[in-house]
Amino acid sequence: MPEVNSPERLGGWTRFVTARPRLALLAALVITALAVFAGSGVADRMGSGGWEAPDAESTCTTKALEREFPASQPNLLLLVDSGSTSVDDPAVAAEAARLAERLAGEKDITGVGSYWQSKAPALRAEDGREALIAARIEGDDKAMGEVLDRIAPAYRGAHGPVEVSVGGPVAVRHEMQTIIQEDLLRAEMIALPVTLVLLVMVFGSAIAALLPLGVGIVAILGTNAVLRGITEFTDVSVFAQNLTTALGLGLAIDYALFIVRRFREELAAGADTRAAVGATLRTAGRTVLFSALTVAVSLAAMLVFPQYFLRSFAYAGIAVVLLAAAAALILLPAALMLLGPRVNSLDLRRLLRRGAGRTGGRVELSATAAAGSGSGWGRFAALVMRRAPVFAAVTTVGLVLLGLPFLGVKFGTADDRQLPATAESHVVQQHIRDGFPGSPGGGLAVLAEGAATPAQYAEYRSRIAGLPGVLRVDGPVTTGRFAYFSVLPDGESVGEESQQLVQDLRAEPAPFDTSVTGTAAVLVDSKHAIADRLPWAVGIIVVVTLLLVFLLTGSVLIPLQAVVLNALSLTAMFGAVVWVFQDGHLSGLLSFTSTGDIETTLPVLMFCVAFGLSMDYGVFLLSRIKEEYDRTGDHERSVTFGLRHTGGLITAAAVILAVVMVAIGTSRVANTKMLGLGIALAVLMDAMVVRSLLVPSVMKLMGKATWWAPARLRAFHRRFGLSEGTSVPLPAEEISKDAPERDKITSGA
To answer: Is 41 buried (19+), middle (13-18) or exposed (0-12) by CB count in 10 A?
Structure first.
């Protein structure tokens, strides 16, 4: 059999990576410094919206209304509180009129109106103690935020007999963006030191622990620079920065863990530094590459959706995954070349061990630590294999039961309730919801285009006023060939009745062209856009995953098993999302306000991210199983070997990634909290339940049929597939000779 670790077998890629390691690290340092400069200020260029479909009827109608009737689309609200006095008191009315006049004179402010000007009942609280001044700030998110920062301090607070608070969509988005940036910085301050401590616990060596952290930082800084460039061409959501931090640390640590552990294993087996790097890149390196491709494909599927909120996560996710893989496959091997056995230096656990000897100044690494496995995982694997039917059935039923709450999911739109209860814009909007008639912030607008007579307008207004769920119809307001009607729903602005009212308004015949917008209309269009594109996204993920896993394993059944089990691993996440965030359980403990629904795009985002991360761990496990199966041809031994060698590694990686996601989940914005905590749960369930219990039990039940493929596909795999390592199946007598020594190395016996 050829010498696996022979220098002559080092491929071109290994020679390229290891030829000039100092130069590679210097170039990385320069590029990272440039990325810091290029990515500075990226958050200020990001938007906080993006949930609406840009080509939907509601979006186009909103733009037309903004153009033709600016006053119809206010995005700034001043809540005027008169205390114990009525808002109709002359002194209150005079002060409110002065504030409205002053606001109308501000630069970039249009469409100023107020209760005291129009006497519209929707702008006056039912108790008569509060009323609204409405206006519109012109420009994009960044420009509107700058205007708000400039004018808000002058209006907020006490003005004679009234107290003024600032709200409206602009204030909600701006406050959300500010809070997200503050929370992200805090999450990084939490995640980095905790992650470093966990890495030290995993590796023992402080030097080895710092390597994955360095790869993660390079990936995050590089992705920020990429996103900064993308903002020059298209909108990017500020929420994408959370994914950048989470995946940048999580995946970089996963990949670096896998590579460093394999490198230390090769050193422990007696290889020199160059040979160990070569063997690591041929095995763990190729696995990392395939893993990165599967994660990137899962995230790229979000590009099929029109909402820039989802597309932003694809931009950030693809960039951070590829940069993490590049750093792990180029910079990390260069660092390992320079460190060699010193990668085991600064062993912080030596005080807890007895008899930790040193030879020639080099810390000796036990085979158990090198392999990242032990007899415990071996015994656990044997137990799962012996009771495979029980473990498979119980695990499957348990996961399905955990996912049942998702059957009652209700979809909605993101609003001010994503913010903390004490946030000013949330307080303003809550006052409007609780104290004003109807839903002033959630009304519908019907835009009419085309020539019409007053009688035709009146007749149309009468008909839509009679539709079920209509509280009141105002208008029409006309200009040229355009007119619009304001329709106030009777009930929740995005409830089922309001969504049905949107459908009824769109179906109502008229002597002119009509289109509908408003909060409920945006939700209806968003749900339609997602439902229309979701089969394409799922199809892309499934087809590419099947192909990549086939190229890795050469089996037809393993790719199908991977897709099904990965999907099953997400059930707990989706069930928990509905039970906690929609139904409001644990809302007090987790400090969020339940809206009674889930924002439409979030399940799609969480599916793509969590599925990709599940495939990440799946590839790690399958690669070691395939490596041993190619070497021995023994199916059950290979499954046990794979779990023994990757069980501890996958668990450690999952715990570290979960820590990062939980740190993200400490955000005060409910959607970010949901994203972080939901994916943390999915990652832990996948690593500790699916990879540890369900995969080995299912592979045991399938037996050697697991590796079946038609002759033509076997030929295709031999030509194009990934071979994990360079070994070929050995004769039975060689396996029996080699097994004891192999077990001694891999199990620490």
So the answer is: exposed
DSSP secondary structure, 50-74, as one string: --S-TTSHHHHHHHHHHHH-GGGS-
Tell me how far apart the alpha carbons of residues 408 and 598 are, in angstroms, rounded to a whole number: 11
**Residue 13: predicted pLDDT:** 61
The helix, strand and coil proportions of the chain, stated in percent and rounded to the nearest 5, come to 70, 10, 20
Show the low-confidence residues of the chain (pLDDT under 50): 1-10, 351, 354-373, 724-749
- For residues 505 and 302, give the distance between their C-alpha atoms in angstroms, rounded to a whole number: 31
What 3-state class would DSSP assign to 107? coil
CA atoms within 13 Å, Cβ hemisphere of 122? 18
Q: How far is CA 231 from CA 43, 316, 360, 612, in A?
A: 10, 11, 54, 25
Backbone angles phi, psi at 322, to 5 degrees: -65, -40
Sign of the alpha-carbon dihedral angle for 681, 177, 113, 138: negative
**Strand 513-518 versus strand 444-449 pairing type:** antiparallel
Answer whether 145's CB lies under 8 Å from 169's CB: no
In order, the DSSP letters of 165-196 are EEESHHHHHHHHHHHHHHHHHHHHHHHHHHHH
CA distances, 735 to each of 2, 224, 445, 646, 671 (Å): 15, 50, 76, 22, 54
Task: Record the pTM.
Answer: 0.84
Strand partners, 486: 445, 474
Beta carbons within 8 Å of 193's beta carbon, 6+ residues apart:
none
Handedness of CA 222, 223, 228, 232 (dihedral sign): positive
Rounded-to-integer distance, Cα 88 and Cα 741, Å: 91
The pLDDT, as a whole number, for residue 265 is 84
